[in-house]
Amino acid sequence: MTVTDWVFLAIALVTLFSAYRVVTTHKIMHAALWLGLTFVGVAGIFLLLGADFLAAAQVLVYVGAITTIIIFGIMLSSVEDLRGESFDNVWKRLSSRLTSSRRGIWPLLAAVGLAAAMVIVVSRGQWPASPHAPALDTPRLLGEALFTRFVIPFEAASIVLLVALIGAIALALKEERTE
Amino acid sequence: MDFFSAMHSGLVSAGWPLWLANLVPPLVKALILLLFILLNCTFLIWMERKVAGHMQRRMGPMRLGPHGIIQTIADVVKLIAKEDVIPAGVDRWVFVLAPIVAFAPAFAVFMVIPFGPNLIAQDLNIALIFIAALTSFVVISFLMAGWSSNNKWSLLGAMRASAQLISYEVPLVISVASVALLAGSLSLQDIVRAQSQSFWYILVQPIGFLVFLTASLAELNRSPFDMSEAEQELVAGYNTEYSGMRWAIFYLTEYANLITFAAMASTLFFGGWSGPGLPPFVWFMIKVYFFIFLVMWIRWTLPRVRIDQLMDIGWKGLLPLSLVNLAFTGIYVLLR
C-alpha cells in the first residue's frame, strides 16, 4: 500500500465513523457536529483526488454554511419539536412514525429515492475510478466549463437559489406579521 | 524555497524513506509559522494594551521590563500555571474541542500568505477560497463553545457572534472577489505580482477596501462590532466559562486572525511585499503592522454599534455596495 492509500483509509474511516455517529448519537447537537466532521472528511477525499477547488468549496458551503444553519435550526427549535413523541417500545415507535406523514412516510420516501439515485450512480460508474491528471489551474477550467458547456444548468441552479431566497424572506415576513 | 528542497534531497540521500523525507519540510514550515504567530501575538497583546493606554492618556503596563514589554510573557506563564477548570454541567468533549476548532484553521490560513517573493509556505492557486473556507470554521467553534458551556451568556454571545459572522462574510468575500477579478487569479502571490507590475489596487478599489475593512472588523469581532463579547451586557460572550490555557487559545486565535486580516489587507490592496528600497519581508511587516495599528486605533476610538444597526450596516449598506463595486470592477476588467 502506498502512502496515499493509507491516507485514504484514514480519511474514509473518519468519514464513515462520523456519519455513523450522526444517526446513532442521542444529542441532536452532537449529530450536527458529527455531520460537520463527515463533510470535512469528504473534503479530504476530494483533496486526495486532486480536486482542490471542490474541496475548498465543500468546506465553505457544507461546513461553513449548512452545518451552521443546522445548528442554528436546532437552537431555535422548541424542545418538544426535537424530542418528538417518546415510546419505549421500538415497534410502537416505528408504527407511529410510519403512519404519521410528517415524520414517517415523506421522509422515508425521500430517503428511498435518494438511495435509489445513489445506487444508480454508483452502478453506472467505472470502478476503481482512474485518478485524472491533476489539473494545474482548476478554478479557470471550472469557470470556463460552467460558463460555456454547463451554462444552462448553472443559470437554472441560480434561479432555484433565488426562488429559495425569496421564499425564505416571504416566510420570515409572514411570521413577523402574525406576531 | 531552495532551502527546503535542499533539506529534502539531503534527507533522501541520507537514506530516509521518501515519504518521511516528504513530511519533514512541511513540518518545519509549520513550526516556523507557529513561532511567527506566537511571537507576534505576544507582542500584539502588549501593543494593544499600550495603544489602549496612550489613547486614554494612561501609560499601559510599565512594571515588567522596559515599558512593560515582558508583561505578556508573565501573563502567559500565569495562564499556563492556572488550574485547568472544566465546569460541572458542560458538554465535556465539545467544550474541550472548541478552542482547537477555533485555532487550527486560523493557523492553517498562514500557509498561503506571501511574506516575500519566495517566502511562502505553499502558493496555492485557490488561496482566496482556501482562506474563506477555513475562516468559516470560526462560526462553528463559537457555537460549540457557547452551546457546550451550558450558560446563557455564552449561548447568547455565540448566537450573536455567528449571526454577525454569517452576515459579514458575504460582503467580505464579494469585495475580495473584485480584487481577484482585477488580478485574474486567486493566488495571493499572483495578486502581489500583478500589483508590483502595475499599481496598488487601492487606487481602483477604494470602495472595495472600505467594505473589506468594515466587514473584517465585524469578522474579527472587534469594536465597533464587538457585540459578541459586549462585556456590559454579556459578561464575556461565548468564552465566559473558559479559563486558563483554553481561554488563552481563544485569545491567541483572535490575535492570529488580526494578523491574517492585516496581511490580507496589505496583500490585496497595498501591494503586499512589493515596495522600493527595503527588503520585501520588511515592507510586508511594515504594512501589516500599520493595519494592525489602524484596527486598534478604531477599537479605542469608536463606540459599539447596536445589534440592529449592525445588521442594517451589513445587509443594507455593505452588501449592495460590494455588489455594485463588483459589477463596476467587471466592466473595468472587460474594457481594460
How would you concisely characterize the structure shown here?
With 179 residues, chain A is mainly α.
Could you please describe the fold and organization of this structure?
The complex is a heterodimer of chains A (179) and B (336). Chain A has eight helices and no strands. Chain A has 179 residues and is mostly helical. Chain A folds into two domains: 1-84, Four Helix Bundle (Hemerythrin (Met), subunit A), CATH 1.20.120.1200; 135-179. In chain A, α1 (3-24) packs antiparallel against α2. The longest helix of chain A is centred in the C-terminal third of the chain and has 28 residues, at 151-178. Chain A is globular, with a radius of gyration of 20 Å. The model of chain A has no long low-confidence stretch (mean pLDDT 81). Chain B is mainly α. Chain B folds into two domains: 1-60, no CATH class; 82-335, no CATH class. Chain B contains 13 helices and no strands. In chain B, α7 (152-183) packs antiparallel against α9 (206-219), α7 runs parallel beside α13 and α11 (244-269) crosses α12. The longest helix of chain B is centred in the N-terminal third of the chain and has 38 residues, at 18-55. The radius of gyration of chain B is 21 Å and the shape is globular. The mean pLDDT of chain B is 85. The interface between A and B is medium-sized, with 24 and 24 residues.
Topology of helices and strands:
The complex is a heterodimer of chains A (179) and B (336).
Chain A: H1 3-24, H2 28-48, H3 52-76, H4 79-83, H5 90-99, H6 101-124, H7 138-147, H8 151-178
Helix pairs in contact in A: 1-2, 2-3, 5-6
Chain B: H1 2-13, H2 18-55, H3 71-81, H4 92-108, H5 127-135, H6 137-148, H7 152-183, H8 188-197, H9 206-219, H10 231-234, H11 244-269, H12 280-299, H13 307-335
Helix pairs in contact in B: 1-2, 2-11, 4-6, 4-11, 6-7, 7-9, 7-13, 9-13, 11-12
